[in-house]
Design goal:
This protein has a 5-stranded mixed β-sheet, sandwiched between helices. The chain starts with a helix and ends in a 10-residue tail after the last helix. The chain has 11 helices and 5 strands; from the N terminus they run H-E-H-H-E-E-H-E-H-E-H-H-H-H-H-H. The chain is α/β, with parallel strands linked by helices and 271 residues long. The protein is 47% helix and 14% strand. The chain has a single domain, classed as Ribonuclease H-like superfamily/Ribonuclease H (Nucleotidyltransferase, domain 5).
């Protein structure tokens, strides 16, 4: 089967860093702040206004430094995993490849975790910045297209699991993945990406992004059990097949090797 026809789901995740130069121009015009100074100033202002809270720079000031995708077929088999634009990891090239992929895989559903809250705003803002197009996504004539909250073209697993934002899912993707015996967060966490990027650790960031995509895939499988699309027995068969596929691919992509080493089994037993 043609890979385009075979692909029914595009599971994706992004990692990004704050664009300090843009923050300087927008938030502190005329102050002559260097990028790192603008980031530090904004962070300090937020800490002073909300003592003890975590500071997260708004997505509108972010630029992607990693985009990982997993392609899944109609039977929920994992058929491909990759970090886009490896090994260069050029932001514009990654964003271009993402939107071209969504355009090419005509029947594919986007799957993510908190995509509506972060990843898709990041991708649409980046497309705006870089002058890129994706008519399939930005189709104003499609009333129930990707941008409609309850569309069947986009599955945001965080929204799905939280009754569309009715409660806060403390622990997030990490929690759900570890409930299923999957690695979840290992050595790297999202709040470390900015510092890692400043140290030039692009490969490590993209490896982390691949890990999140794999966790998202396995969480998606369990949500298909919840919704009655597949049985628990079928899900476990798919998990084992995916594990074998990943083991075969581990020599090609170091990120997969790390993930497989921490791969565990799900158990219904508590504690």
């Amino acid at each position: 089967m043609d890979p385009i026809d075979e692909t029914a789901y595009i599971v994706f995740d992004t990692e990004s860093v704050a664009d300090g130069a843009l923050m300087s121009r927008v938030l502190y015009p005329g102050d002559g702040l260097a990028p790192e100074e603008a980031i530090a100033r904004y962070t300090q202002e937020q800490l002073e206004s909300r003592p003890g809270s975590k500071v997260f720079i708004p997505v509108s000031f972010h630029v992607p430094v990693a985009i990982a995708i997993a392609r899944v077929n109609r039977d929920y088999h994992l058929i491909d995993v990759k970090a886009l634009d490896a090994p260069r990891f050029d932001s514009r090239s990654m964003v271009d490849l993402f939107w071209k992929g969504l355009q090419a895989y005509k029947g594919a559903v986007l799957v993510d975790f908190n995509g509506r809250g972060f990843d898709l705003p990041l991708m649409t803002m980046s497309a705006f910045r870089f002058g890129l197009s994706c008519p399939r996504y930005f189709n104003d004539e499609d009333r129930f297209g990707f941008r409609y909250r309850f569309t069947d073209k986009h599955l945001d697993l965080m929204e799905w699991m939280t009754e569309y934002g009715s409660y806060r899912l403390t622990g997030g993707l990490d929690l759900l993945a570890k409930m299923l015996g999957k690695p979840g967060k290992m050595e790297t966490k999202g709040n470390q990406v900015q510092e890692m990027h400043s140290q030039g650790k692009l490969q490590e960031i993209n490896d982390y992004c691949v890990h999140d995509v794999l966790d998202t895939y396995f969480v998606m499988l369990r949500t298909r059990v919840l919704s009655g699309k597949i049985s628990l027995e079928r899900e476990q068969e798919l998990v084992e097949k995916a594990r074998g596929w990943l083991e075969d691919k581990a020599t090609e992509l170091p990120a997969i090797s790390t993930y497989v080493a921490e791969f565990g089994k799900w158990s219904p037993d508590l504690f």
